[in-house]
Amino acid sequence: MKKLLVANRGEIAIRVMRTAKKMGIKTVAVYSTADRNAPHVKYADEAVLIGEAPSNKSYLLGDKIIEVAKKLNVDAIHPGYGFLSENAEFAEKIAQNNITFIGPKSKAIKIMGSKLAAKEAVKAYHIPMVPGTDEAITNIAEAKSIASKIGFPILIKASAGGGGKGMRIVEKEADFESQMERAISEAINAFGDGAVFIEKYVASPRHIEIQVMADAHGNVIHLFERECSIQRRHQKVVEEAPSGVLTPELRNKMGEAAIKVAKACDYLGAGTVEFLLDENHNFYFLEMNTRLQVEHPVTELISGTDLVELQIRVARGEVLPIKQEDLKINGHALELRVYAEDPLNDFLPSVGRLDVYKLPVGKNIRVDNGFEEGMDIPIYYDPMLSKLITYGKTRNEAIELMLKAINDYKIEGIKTTLPFGSFVFEHEAFRSGNFNTHFVKQYYSPEALKEKQEEEAKMAALIAVKQYIEDQKLLRLPN
Ligand code: MV4
Predict the structure, then answer these.
(1) Pocket test for ligand 1, best of 209, 225, 286, 295 (most atoms within 8 A of CB)
(2) Which residues carry out catalysis?
(3) Domain 3-102 is of which CATH architecture?
(4) Which residue among 24, 91, 244, 468 has its CA within the 20 to 30 Å range from the CA of 330?
(5) What is the per-residue pLDDT across 160-173, written as a single tens digit (0 to 9) for each?
């Protein structure tokens, strides 16, 4: 593999190219007219303009990207996350053109893209799943009787959904038919596939996911868990590894289940198996994400691995260089996603120019960044500016370093979620580890953040006055 094209933009494009360069592989960036001066374009050895700013005229044009790859004699394409990363057809076409897709085979993407196909695939492997139906509902009366047996509330989920899309909660039996009809018509509208199924609603779960990596020789390892419960409207904001609630026994069990899920779909490369963990620490398989995830750095830090390097190695057909028994958790890692959004104004995208953009640096601080000072934030793409990742021997060490690093960011021109990050990392529920997927809804409000900020401003003023008085005393000392 001599030349790699990254079919993505922003921090993940740079993250992937960083490892490619380390491995002596040449890099090709693609970009839209909105990204002419973007850092990922400058960072690559070669860069090709592929279209207009809207994603569907640039970063989503699979055929165009493959055409560029062929023209430039590219050996492999890395899709990053989002855009074409979980598009089975794109993976298939790349393979047909004798280019290596850095990811699983198109068949695995397809299976995991359908929640019902995923359930079907793992059936023989005895993976714990939430009680519910495992076939598309065709008879609403029959489904209603199943729902009553499971007990309300229940969730209706679209098979083609995922990541929180296409879900509907039904609180009581009387609402079942109407909610079911809505769910089906929504699923048809959103995904062109009306297949829905039902599950018991797990009321206050944690979201725990397991990182897996598979080679083409039948070896699959897991690289432990990430705790991703701190999310807002299905958008993760804070992630950490390891989770504070997994015992070594539970970790092994979930890891083994995740490996079985990967084996069930003949997986290749990096993948993530999502689980819900209920209050009694029962775990249930939810879905598998067939890509490198945003939050992969926390896993890299605690496992001492480079996941992109492993992706590239297994894509080249190499045997996984690590065995399960070689892996050990070392320390604790946290990640904060820094978005150009205003936490005091309903997280509305904050567009504009990055007049000042200075990043924290230091030992055990990693910033995966896609922007630079002076740039405009394009309105066309995800508003994530960078990921702030900290590492410590203990969770507390990582938290303290995180708070310091948040303060060391200097951003002017736009609003960001940095203050929201401080709010989370200072919150008692986060610090104690006693939280679930309802954290943000439960504890966060703009008023709570404002109050915290005013208190901090008062403190700072008091300290300044105290210092002033001390200085005055010193000045008045004789001689
Ligand atoms: C659930 C659930 C409760 N019970 N399934 C949301 C994302 C998608 N991956 C599945 N999701 C959920 N499925 C059952 N049977 C609660 C959620 C859920 C959730 C899961 C993980 C992280 C955040 C979440 C926020 C709301 C709901």
Answers:
(1) 286
(2) 291
(3) 3-Layer(aba) Sandwich (3.40)
(4) 24
(5) 988 778 899 999 99
